[in-house]
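Model it.
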Amino acid sequence: MLLAALALPLMIQSTPYEEPLRPQFHFTAKAGWLNDPNGLVFFGGEYHLFFQHNPFGTQWGNMTWGHAVSPDLVHWRQIDHAIEPDRLGTIFSGSAVVDVANTSGLGTVGKPALVCIYTAAGGTNEASKGQPFTQCLASSTDGRIFAKLPDNPVLGHLEAENRDPKVLWHEPTGKWVMALFLDGNRYALLGSKDLRAWTRLSTVEMPGASECPDFFELPVVGDRGRMKWVFWGGSGRYRVGSFDGTTFTPETESIPTNFGNTGYAAQTYFNDPNGRRVQIAWHNNANFPGTAWNQELGIPTELTLVSTPDGPRLRIHPVSELARLHGPLVKEQGSGWFPVESGLIDATVSLEVPPTGTLALVANGQRITYDAPSHDLKCLDRSVRVAPVEGRLRLRVLVDRASLEIFAQEGAVSMPIFALPVDGPRGLRVERTGAWTGEVKVYPLNSAWPAHGGAR
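Modeled.
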């Protein structure tokens, strides 16, 4: 049930980003509930992050597109809301594009429009009673002020609660392509020359996934010149295949990427000045008790597609810009103890795996364990088998105030964990039984907020 809208939004002006539970390098809204990342796009020399936001409370409801910008994917500044609810409904998830060729007529060739494509969720507010879920446009030429298309919706109701349009430009056929969730594990692909008139192309099935599609092409690392398409569903499962401009033909089963206790509705940037495929997810069970905000987003990651004996597979890596938060390398203080007073940690582990023994990384009291004989990597109640590669275990662990993001074997495994902090010393302790040899590096991380005045 939707929350009743209050007369005024939550007061956010006094939030200092220094509260005890406030994540320091994961994005959170100044105040109110946050969920899916929306409209990820690089425009006007900055990264734009739109997100599902409730300005009136810390639980889901009153969906509006919040808006933040960043020069580097690390230091974010929250600005005015981009898209507000109206007679067609509250504003559910979607995507954004830069219409360089001005196919929509919403900008000019010399001054392209940033065009947001979103779901108007009919029936979710008083003004939209009796309306279905439809797809709409809003645009801006300055990245700050957005105007809804007077002719909205641009795509009427197809079936069920069709929603979450992800739009991309398909160069070979010279058209925009939309991936749209339909119902169950079914998605539609649609095409348009101008972002306004859409034609149904085909259907995609994603076993084990629903909602929040993403669709993109990547080169296959290790297979020169080969390109493959990836279709992604809200649960973090994907299929690799080919796309001819009309039909996506999967060549794999539905493959999981997320082995943690949080993470949903991940989306990638429409464009990136460095040519990367950058992704941000919602940490969907990140409940912060007694705070003016709720939920957080995952760190930005880079996706690559690599050649493996099983075929092309995704790899997920933290973006390189996170190193901008590094403090000086921490020296071990004996017995595997690396003190980090702030508790904000970026640790890398590269160790030879012995025939028997266990490894434990204890980060601010939270245990990450690896069992050499079984190859089981565990944190809290989650586990995944991680086989050694060339005899080694490689881990990257990023620790914020209430989360651990664990990446294994160069991004083959991603394990995001939400865990409220426990009492005890801040830092990383490495505990080993058996003959583990290799290197552990620990960097303290600075807060992302002070460098640009926080997300104010």
